Amino acid sequence: MENSTETTNKERIVTRLDDTIFQGRVSESDGADSNLSQKYRMTAKNVNVYYSETHAIKNVSLSIRENEVLSIIGPSGCGKSTFLRCLNRINDIVVGCRITGEIMLDGIDINGGELDVVELRARVGMVFQKPNPFPKSIYDNIAYGPRLHSMVNSREETDEVVYSCLREVGLLSEVEDRINKSGTELSGGQQQRLCIARALAVKPDVILMDEPCSALDPIATAKIEDLIDELRTQYSIVIVTHSMQQAARVSQRTAYFNLGDLIEVGDTGEVFTNPKHKLTEDYITGRFG
Amino acid sequence: MTSRLEAASSGSHWDTAAFKRRLRRRRSAEKRFKWYGIGAVLLGIFFVFMLFSSIAINGVGAFWQTQIQLDIYFDPAEISEANLYSANYGKLVKQAMYSQFPEVAKRKEKRQLSRMVSVGADVMLQDLVTSDPSIIGTTQSLWFPIDDSFDMLYKNDFGRDPDKGGAGLISKNQLGWFDTLVEKGKIESRFNKRYFTAGDSREPELAGLRGALMGSFFTILVTLAISFPVGVAAACYLEEFAPRNKFTDFIEININNLAAVPSVVFGILGLAVFINFFGLPRSVPLVGGLVLSLMTIPTIIIAGRAALRAVPPSIREGALALGASKTQAVIQEVVPLAMPGMLTGTIIGIAQALGETAPLLMIGMVAFIVDVPGGPLDPSTVLPVQIFLWADSPERAFLEKTSGAILILLAFLIAMNIVAVIMRRRFERRW
Ligand SMILES: Nc1ncnc2c1ncn2[C@@H]1O[C@H](COP(=O)(O)OP(=O)(O)OP(=O)(O)O)[C@@H](O)[C@H]1O
Ligand SMILES: [Mg+2]
C-alpha cells in the first residue's frame, strides 16, 4: 500500500514537471564561484542564524540569480522562513536573534555600513507567511510604500500605482467598490494578495515570498503563480512553499532545507526528477518522517 | 490505543457510575464558581450604590439655597455716581428688612432682624449698581441668600426642633419672623447659582466652587500637557527603541516603583524642587500640575508600554519590510494602534490626579482663597482640597456643600471614564 502511494506521488510530480519549461542547466555549486557574481542578485555565504540557543540556520550558502524564481522547500521548522528573513534583515528586530556570515546584494554586503537597512528593505520586498495588512484602507495599504519613498507625487500617480498593483494580483475586481474599506476586513486570501500588491508597489529588485499561497484557493493560487511567472522578467523571486507541485510549476531552481542545513540546491527539474541526496528524495517522494 | 478505542466504542468507560459522578461534580463546581462571581459583583454594586446614594442624599441640598425676597429702594440720597464703591449698601438691605416688620423698634431686635439676610447682600447690591447705575432711584424686587442658619432651618428644621440640634443659634423672635416670611411667600428655596459661580467664602451661603473648579481645571491642564507627551515618548522609547540590558531593566523597575510611591512624597519633592529650588510661587496650579505629572507619568508609561506590546509584531514587520525606518514604522503604524490603550491609561492617570489631595497640601494649595483663579499662575485650590477644607469647617451648612462638591467631583470622574470607554470603542473599531 505504501509503495503505491509513493509511485503515484512521484508520477504526479514528474508529469507536472513535463509542462514546465526549464532554464539551461547550470553546473556550478552555489555561491562559491565569484566569477559569476554579476549574474547573482543576492548571495549568501556561510550564514548561521541563532535564536538565543536554537541554531536555526547552519552554514548555508545560497544565491539568487537575476530573473529567476528560487523555491525553498523543506519540512516545517527547518528554517525556511528564517533564511528568508535574513535576506532583508527583518530578523534584526527579533530579540535574541544572531546572524553570522555574509549576505550580498548586487555585490554589496547588506550587513555592512554601505547599504542602509531602509534601502535594503525597499529593494528586497517581502510577503509574510501570515497576511499582515495594515488596519487602514486597502488604498492606503498599497499607497504606503510609494508614499514612504516619494515614488508618487500626486493623487493621480498614487491612484495609478494602487490600481495597477491591485489588477496585477487579481484583486481589483473584488475590491473595486470598497477600496476605502479597511484591509483587515478582507478574507485571508484577499489579505495575502493585498500584501503581495503592497510589496509590488515599491518596485523592489528581489521579492521574498513566504508561503504566499497557503491561504488561497486553487484559482487564486493559479493567478498568483501566473503573476510570479510574469514578475520573473523584472524581479528575482524567492518563494517558500510547502507545495512541491507549486515549486515545480513556478521555480527554475529549488533548494531543500532540513533542520537548518541546506541539503541540496539545483535546477528544479533536476531536484525533483533526480535528487542527489537521499533526504531530498525521501522528502519529495513523501517518505519523509 | 486499540483497547481505549474499544472501550470508548463499547461505551464501558463513559457509562460507568464513577464517570457520571465526576461529571456531576464538575458541573456543580462550575455552577458554584459562577455564583461566587455574581455574588462578588453584586456586593460591589451594593457598596457603590450605598456610597453614591448617601453622598447624593447629603449633597443635593447644596444645589438649592433658601433665599429671601426684598424690595430694595435704591435711595439716591445714599448712592450716587460719585460713591458707587463706598456707598452704604448694607443700609439699603436693612431698611428693606425693617419695612417687612415695621413694629420692630428695639435696637437689639432690629439687629437680629437684619442678620437674617446673608452678609453678602450688600456686595451683591454694589455689583448690581456698578454694572447698571441707571437703577438708582428705582425700587427692585430682589432675591438674596438667607443666612446659613436659616437655610438649615428651612431645609431640615435644624435649630427649631431640639432633637435636631442647633439650639441657641436662632432666637424666638427670629423664628417668628421667619415663619411669617415663609407664610407670605417671601422665603423660598431656589437654585443655588452662586455654588457654581462664586469662589470660596467663610459664609456657607456665599461659598461657591468656581475657584476650586478653575483651580482643578488649570492644574489638570498643566498635568496633561506635561505628562501625556512625556509619558507617551518614554513608553515609545522604552518599548520600541531602548536596548534590552541591565540599565533599562533598572529603569523599568524604578518606573513601576514610582507608580506605587505614596502621593504625599511627590508633594514633598515638589516643595523641595519646584518651590524651594526653582523658586516657583506657592499655591499655584502650575506647581500643582508639575507635582501631579510626576505621579501620572509612571501610570501613562506603564499603560503605554502595555498598549504598544499589544500591537502585533507583524504590523511592525510589515512596515519595516516596505522600507520604513524604525521611527516611521513606530510613529505611523504602531503608535496609532496603541493610542486607545495609551489614552485610557492617560485618562485613568488624570482621573487619579484630579482626585489627589495630599501632594497639593504640601505645596500650599490648601490656602483659603476667595478669588477665582484666572490662569495657572494665580493662587488657587482644587476640588478635592476644597472638599477637605469644607469638611473641616464647623458650620453645619458646609456639610451639604462638602457632599455637593463630592458629587461634582464624582460626576467629573465618571464623565472621564465614560470618555475613556468611548474612545477605546471608537479607535478599536479600526482594528
Ligand atoms: N522568533 C523566534 N524565536 C526563537 N526561535 C525561533 C523564532 N522563529 C523561529 N524559531 C525557530 O527556528 C527554527 C526555524 O523556524 P522557521 O520559522 O524558519 O521554520 P520554517 O521552515 O519557516 O517552518 P514552517 O514551514 O512551519 O513555516 C524553528 O525551530 C523555530 O522554532
Ligand atoms: Mg515559515
Task: State the end-to-end CA separation of chain A.
Answer: 17 Å
Q: Per DSSP, what share of the residues of chain A sits in E-state strands of 2 or more residues?
A: 15-25%
Q: So how many helices of chain A?
A: 11
Helix content of chain A: 25-40%
Which residues of chain A sit in consecutive blocks of at least 5 with pLDDT less than 50?
1-38
CATH superfamily of chain A: P-loop containing nucleotide triphosphate hydrolases
- The count of strands of chain B amounts to 3
Give the averaged pLDDT of chain A, no decimals.
Answer: 84
Number of helical segments of chain B? 17
Protein chain pair with the most extensive contact, residues per chain: A-B, 27 and 20 residues
CATH class of the largest domain in chain B: Mainly Alpha
| CATH 4th-level superfamily of the largest domain in chain B | MetI-like
Strand order of the largest sheet of chain A: 6-7-8-3-9-10
Instruction: Compute the number of structural domains of chain B.
Output: 3
Sheet with the most strands of chain A?
6 strands, mixed
Structure description:
The complex is a heterodimer of chains A (289) and B (431). Chain A has 289 residues and is of the alpha/beta class. Chain A has a single domain (2-284), classed as 3-Layer(aba) Sandwich (Rossmann fold), CATH 3.40.50.300. Chain A has eleven helices and ten strands. Chain A starts with a helix and ends in a 5-residue tail after the last helix. The model of chain A is unreliable at 1-38 (pLDDT under 50). Chain B has 431 residues and is mainly alpha-helical. Chain B has three domains: 2-60; 64-197, no CATH class; 210-427, MetI-like (MetI-like fold). Helix content of chain B is 65%, strand content 5%. A three-stranded antiparallel sheet of chain B has the order 2-1-3. In chain B, helix 14 runs antiparallel to helix 17. The longest helix of chain B has 43 residues, at 17-59.
